[in-house]
Amino acid sequence: MSKMWKVGFVFFGIFIAGAIVGGFASLRFAREFVQKRGASEQFAMMHKGRLNESLKLTAAQRARIDVIVDETGEELRKFRKETNRIFQVMNTRISVELTPEQKREFEKMQTRWRERRPQRPPSREEREAGKREDGKAPVPPGPGSLEKREP
Description:
- The chain is an all-alpha fold.
- It is built from five helices and no strands.
- The longest helix has about 40 residues, at about 60-95.
- The N and C termini lie far apart (about 85 Å).
């Protein structure tokens, strides 16, 4: 009886080890998958899949709806770029109103905000533009950025 217990324990250990390794491997591949696709591309792919699965779309419906979802993804990309530009303008205008000491504190605040903001995968434009010198995809200044201009 103790031999059966040992065999069961070994199989259980192998199962647990496989689950752990599989979990880490799937996280790695999932992260790479997410980084290879932009957020709006992910949105489009996932939304198309949900619609097709839930609504049992015909091939003709799927083709027409895919166009609609792709167009919406493109609009979202444009909106994100415009939002980033608006934040940059706001931060530049705020900076002009500050004293040198306040500017230094404002820059520290922005650094903290950028560090807390989750990193997003690079956009299609960033991937097409290539990589930065440090090997990472270029990321345009976001809402927390500050153009360094002297008034």
